[in-house]
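Below is how a single chain appears once it has passed through the pipeline. First comes the sequence as given, then the structure the pipeline wrote out for it. We keep one example in the README because the format questions we get most often are answered faster by looking than by reading.
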Amino acid sequence: MSEEQWVCLSQEEFDQLQKYSEYSSKKIKDVLAQFNEGGSLRQCGSQELISYDVFKLFMRTYLEVDLPEPLGTHLFLAFSQKPKKETPDHPKERTSSNEPSSPDANIQTTDNAAKADEACAPDTESKMAEKQAPVRTQAAASPLGDPAVQSSSSESPIVHLKDVVCYLSLLETGRPQDKLEFMFRLYDSDQKGLLDHREMDRIVNQMLHIAQYLEWDPTELRPILMEMLQGMDYDQDGFVSLQEWVRGGMTTIPLLVLLGMDESSSQGDGRHAWTLKHFKKPTYCNLCHLMLMGVRKQGLCCTYCKYTVHERCVSKNVPGCVKTCSKAKRSGEVMQHAWVEGNSSVKCDRCHKSIKCYQSVTARHCVWCRMTFHRKCELSTVCDGGELRDHILLPTSICPVTRDRQGGKSDGSSAAAKGELLTQYKIIPAPGTHPLLVLVNPKSGGRQGERLNFFRDTPDFRVLACGGDGTVGWILDCIDKANFAKHPPVAVLPLGTGNDLARCLRWGGGYEGGSLTKILKEIEQSPLVMLDRWYLEVIPREEMESGDQVPYSIMNNYFSIGVDASIAHRFHMMREKHPEKFNSRMKNKLWYFEFGTSETFAATCKKLHDHIELECDGVEVDLSNIFLEGIAILNIPSMYGGTNLWGETKKNRVVIRESRKSITDPKELKFCVQDLSDQLLEVVGLEGAMEMGQIYTGLKSAGRRLAQCSSVTIRTNKLLPMQVDGEPWMQPPCTIKITHKNQAPMMVGPPQKSSFFSLRRKSRSKD
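Resulting structure:
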C-alpha cells in the first residue's frame, strides 16, 4: 500500500464535516448519479478528475448548503494531488503495497498545497476558470477510473472524484455490507466485477484517512487491513471479486467498527456505537467477564452506555444499548434502572466502600442516574434520574403516537381508520422537571433547528446554547421562527472568543473544563432576565458600490461603526486567510494588539463625523464639535471580551427613568444606568484606537456617552467598516435603522465570587 501525504483537516473541521453529512437528506450515491445525463451536475461531465469549482458544486449538491470557505479549501487540499507525468522513457509504474513513498513527495505535496491555496482563494476565480478548460478536456479524453492522467506543472490542483465519494460514504449511516458493496462498484470502472490491488489500496487509504480522526492509530489499523486484503485473494491472481470483498470486510471486526456495525437485531434505538479503545486501568469484558489484554487498543467500548467487549465477543449475542424512548403508547410506565456491569472505579452509593479491581466485573452502574452499587448492595429497581433528574428526559417520558399521513391522529391505542400510519413521538416529562435541550455551534449543521420542533409541545423545557455569541443569536432566531406559545429560557455555556453575552449573564468569559455537573446544577437554580433584541435594517443607496453581505439582521449585543470595526475586519480577514495562526486566545489577543497599534498610526476612520449623520429617536445628534473615529450602539454592558464602554454609574446617582424619551444632555447621561432589559440603547463615541486600548486595559473607565434612546438611525456617505455582534463587514453608503424587536428570557448564572482586592477596588470607587 502506498504511503500518501495528506493535508489533514483539524479535528474541529472533521467534526464539523460529520455534522454537515449527518444533517444532509441526500445520499452520496444519489448525488454521484447527478453527473449522468439529465442530472443537475451533467454540465460538469462524467469525469474522474475534478477541479475546485466542480468540487464546491458537488459538495453544495450533497450537503444542501455551502461549506464555509476555510473548511471547503482544507477539504479540497486533503484530496488534491498532482498525477505523475508519464513519458515513453518512463512509463507509469504500478503502485505496490510495499513500495516506499517518492523522495519528491514532500516537495510535490508542498507545490500542490500552494497551487490549491491559490486556486481556492476567492479573488482568483477568474484564473481558475482559465485553467479549468485544459484540465476538463484532458480528463474527458482519459478513461474513467485511470488515476494516472497527464498533468502539466502549470495546471490547477485536481482531485479524484471517486476518492471524495468513497471518503464521504464512510461518514454516512448504513449497513457495512451496503458500504462495502458501494465502494466495490465505485472503483470497478470496467464493470468486470473485479478489483486489483491498486484500486483496493485507494479504498483503504480513505478508510485510514477517516480512522485518524476517530482517535484510531493508523499504524495499528494498516496491518489489519493489509492482512484482510491478502486474505481476500484466495487464488492469488491479483484480483478480488465482490463476494470475496464483502466476505473479507464482514469478518474483520475493526473494519466493521469503522464502517459502523449495524446488525439487524439492533437497528434504530438501542444500537451500540462501538469504538476501539485503550484502557488505562484493568478492564473486563461485559460479555465473557474476562480481562481485556493488549498493549494498545484492547477492546471495544460503546460511546453511549460504556458497554465493553473483546473484539471476538462483539459479534456474539451482545445485549442492546440503552433505550431512549418508551414502547408503551401511554404515559405512566415506571422507569427501571438501565444497568451496565463492571468497570466502575467509584465508591458504592449504599455502603460507600470502594469497588475493588477484582470486583469491577460484578458491580453495576445505571446509565441514567449514574448510581453505582455492589450486587449485594442494590436497592430499589426504580430509577428517578439521579441528581440531574430536572434536566434529563428518561425513556418513559418519550412515548410513541400514531398518526396517519392525512394529518389525522389516533388515540394511541387503535390504528387510524384511513391512511398510512406513521409513528411519531410525544414528550411527557415527569411533573416538576424542566427538560434541557442542548444545542451546539450552528456551523455543525443548520438543521439543528428541527430539534426545537420536537420540543414544541413540551412544557417548561429549557435550552443550553454551547458556543459563542453567534451561536446564542442563531438559537434565539430559531426559537423565534418556531413560534412557541411560550419562549423557552436560554442558558449559555461559553465556548467562543469574546463571549460578551455570557459575561453579562454571569456564565463566565469561557469554559475551561470545569465540572459539567456543577454547571447543570447551577442552571437548575438560575433566575431569569429578559434580553432586549433589536432589528438591524441596512438600506443601501441607489448608487451600488462593492461591499460585503450584512452578517445579521438582528442585534443582540452591540453594533459599531468606525475604528473598532476596522480592527475587527482586519482581524477577520487575516483569520480567514491564515486560520492556523489563530488557534489560541493568546494569539488572538496578540493579533488584536498588532492591528490596534497599526490602526493608531493609520487612523483610517479619522473625522468620522464628516461622513455620518446620527439620529436618536428622530432627534439629530450634533457631532460637528466632537472628534470621533468610532461610534458604538450598545445593548449589553460588555464588548471586546468584557469591556464596558458605557462605564459604571454610581448607585447613589442613578435616576429611574419614567419614559423612554431620548437623552443626549451630557449632564443627564452621567446618571443613566445601562440595563439589557430596559428596551433602551446606549450610544457611545470612541476617539480612536488608543482610547480603545486604554479602556480595554482599565486605564480609562469608559468612552464618551452620546445618548440613551429607544431607536437609532445612522446615514453614511462613504464605504465604512461596521460590525454587529462581533461579525465585521465593509458597507457602502447606506442608511441604518435599529429598532426594538422583542425580548427573550435568558438564564443568569450564580453571583461571581469576589476576591479581597476586587472588594477593595469597589469600595474605593463608591467613595
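The chain has a mean pLDDT of 75.

See the next section for the split statistics.
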